[in-house]
From TrEMBL:
Coiled coil: none
InterPro entries linked: Bac_export_3
GO terms under biological process: protein secretion
Protein name according to UniProt: Flagellar biosynthetic protein FliQ
Length: 81
């Protein structure tokens, strides 16, 4: 049972860390797609650059928290050993 708990907590950590990046990247992608459909500008680099800026911004703002979550889980794993 303990292995299942460790795996469940690991999945929770993955969702906590990757969730904000994926959700904001997807939101920016949808907004850019709507903008491109309205203006009929179909430039691929526009979507890529905006997503890159958003991901870097999220990492700069939340990177410390993400690292702390990962470190807490790693410490928990080492205490189990």
């Amino acid at each position: 049972m303990e292995v299942v708990d460790v795996m469940r907590q690991g999945m929770g950590v993955i969702l906590k860390i990757s969730g904000p990046l994926l959700i904001l990247s997807m939101l920016v992608g949808v907004l850019v797609a709507i903008f491109q459909a309205v203006t009929q500008i179909h430039e691929q680099s526009l979507s890529f650059i905006l997503k890159l800026v958003v991901v870097v911004g999220v990492l700069l703002l939340g990177g410390g928290w993400m690292l702390e979550v990962l470190l807490d889980y790693t410490r928990y794993l080492f205490t189990l050993m």
